[in-house]
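User
New here, explain this?
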Amino acid sequence: MKKKKEEDFRDIDIPVYMISVAAKLAGVHPQTLRIYERKKLIRPSRTPGSTRLYSAEDIQRLKYIQRLTQECGVNLAGVRLIMDLRRELEVMKKALDEAEKRFEDFEREVEERMENIRRSHRRDLVLIPRGEIVRR
């Protein structure tokens, strides 16, 4: 049986931190997390008993929100706009990457077709003696 590596257990999107731990890791009060959730800046998972659980990715997002509000002076409405724009940018980047891949595939296909056309045409020069050219 293959042993799992330690990093296999560090999935960034698995919710494992309760609100008190998440708040401590993010350097905020637990009430701040509740406010962020009400403002739809963060969406923690919930257990069947309705306990909030935060992932490492959520903690990173919380730290980013703190940086925007504390260091940059952005209000929560501005933070939400910035986060929405970042999400939109990520979607656009994925679409661009897919379009670039399709373009590369298309370019490769065109090159292959052109090469096949080149191979199918004879490029030999055939010398015809002058006297054999018939003009009408």
Remarks:
- The CA atoms of residues 85 and 91 lie 10 Å apart.
- Helices lie at 19-26, 30-38, 56-71, 76-120.
- The first helix runs from residue 19 to 26.
- The mean pLDDT is 88.
